[in-house]
Amino acid sequence: ENITSDIISSLTPGAQYRVVVYHTNGPLVSPASEPVIIDIEPTGVRDLVVYPLSPTAVILSWQRPYNVAFRKYVLQTFFFNSATQTSQWTTYYEIAATASVIASV
């Protein structure tokens, strides 16, 4: 087989890339290959800390993920009802990546 490969580095987590390959021979350029779409998995937030504010409220603090392209954070709560032995995740807030929030839970 005639296989050629290369490494594409410094991609941004959370971003999507479209890659095509073509070859040249002097002034001649081949048609491009079919595009391949690459989705780079995002990394998570760093250093999540919870500070008590009151009996019914907490402050959440975290560091942004490293070099990640994203628009918003989604804060979810997990509630377990011991009486009925049921549980569920609930989306509590969706906030812009540049905002901060104090939440009562």
Automatic annotation (TrEMBL):
PROSITE patterns: FN3 (PS50853). Residues 1-43 form the Fibronectin type-III domain. This is Fibronectin type-III domain-containing protein. It comes from Cirrhinus mrigala (Mrigala).
